[in-house]
Design goal:
Blueprint (H helix, E strand, L loop, with lengths): L2 E4 L5 H10 L4 E6 L3 E7 L2 E7 L2 H4 L1 H7 L5 H10 L5 H10 L5 H18 L7 E5 L13 E2 H21 L7 E2 L15 H7 L8 H7 L4 H14 L3 E2 L36 H12 L2
Antiparallel strand pairs: 1-5, 2-3, 2-5, 3-4, 4-6, 7-8
Helix pairs in contact: 1-7, 3-4, 3-6, 6-7, 7-10, 9-10
């Protein structure tokens, strides 16, 4: 008989802990923000999927991990119709397009990120059945649930803090007129530069996140750091009479799947903006 319940009564962390302690084998299906299935063997996480089959295909997983280009991924999906992940992975390694380590690392990232999402769901019906179903055709991992639970719990705590600081992604940023003196010691990553290059009172954080292919957690984490460093500040709310600003131009197509937006590549950093920021820092 399947185990059934709701996340409002039994959290994701408690569910995974139970599966780990009981060394369960089977499929945990959660109907939350999107249908998510977690697969276990002897109390270890072996695979996870959410949304439709396209999002969870090996070709798409490798593309999102940067192991394949968009063109390679699309061509691979056409050629691989009716081919299981195990056979497809073997063919890719034999052809020299990826290594076995590339596949395992990409799958690990996909499985963990899919699993971590459910930690933030306040409710959603779930059921556990002792059947591996679709996972039999997937490349199986063997991830210890103790580490998954610890990281998922940490991320949930961080998410709550970030949403308190930045409750909406529809806000806009601007550069301060008088940069903070702490900017002398600021060292930004390429990802942070790309976010800064799109900062404008005419763009929302949501638009910036979509262009840079950043999750809601990641864009909030980056912007929170930029705000704390004094590099940016909140722009005043636009008056209702002002027309809606145009979206950030991009040729992306929205991917069918969870929160991440699929785009061909991140936009180049706008050097004029970078130089302006550097000049401000040097003038302090």
């Amino acid at each position: 008989m399947a185990l059934k319940g709701n996340l409002r009564d039994f959290s994701a962390a408690q569910l995974l802990n139970l599966i780990s302690l009981a060394h369960k084998t089977g499929t945990l299906t959660i109907e939350g923000r999107e249908a998510t299935r977690l697969y276990f063997r002897d109390g270890r996480l072996i695979y996870a999927e959410a949304g439709d089959s396209h999002w969870n295909s090996l070709a798409q997983i490798l593309r999102r991990a940067g192991r394949l280009s968009e063109e390679q991924s699309l061509a691979l999906q056409v050629r691989a119709q009716g081919t299981g992940d195990k056979q497809l992975g073997h063919l890719l390694v034999e052809a020299g397009q990826v290594t076995q380590a590339d596949i395992i690392q990409s799958l690990r990232g996909h499985v963990l990120e899919t699993t971590y999402r459910v930690f933030g769901w306040p409710e959603g019906p779930f059921r556990f059945e002792s059947d591996l179903g679709a996972a039999a055709e997937r490349i199986a991992l063997a991830l210890d649930l103790d580490g998954v639970i610890l990281e998922g719990t940490r991320r949930l705590k961080e998410w709550k803090q970030l949403t308190e600081e930045l409750p909406s992604l529809d806000v806009r940023l601007r550069f301060p007129e008088q940069p903070n003196g702490r900017l002398r010691d600021v060292h930004l990553t390429v990802e942070e530069w790309r976010v800064i290059s799109l900062v404008s009172p005419q763009r929302t954080l949501r638009q910036i996140a979509e262009v840079n292919q950043l999750s809601e957690v990641r864009i909030r984490r980056i912007v929170f750091g930029l705000l704390q460093a004094g590099l940016v500040e909140m722009a005043p709310l636009a008056k209702s009479s002002v027309s809606q600003p145009p979206a950030v131009p991009t040729n992306r197509a929205t991917a069918a799947g969870p929160t991440t937006i699929a785009v061909p590549s991140s936009p180049p950093v706008k050097r004029s903006v970078v130089r302006r920021i550097i000049e401000r820092i040097r003038s302090l």
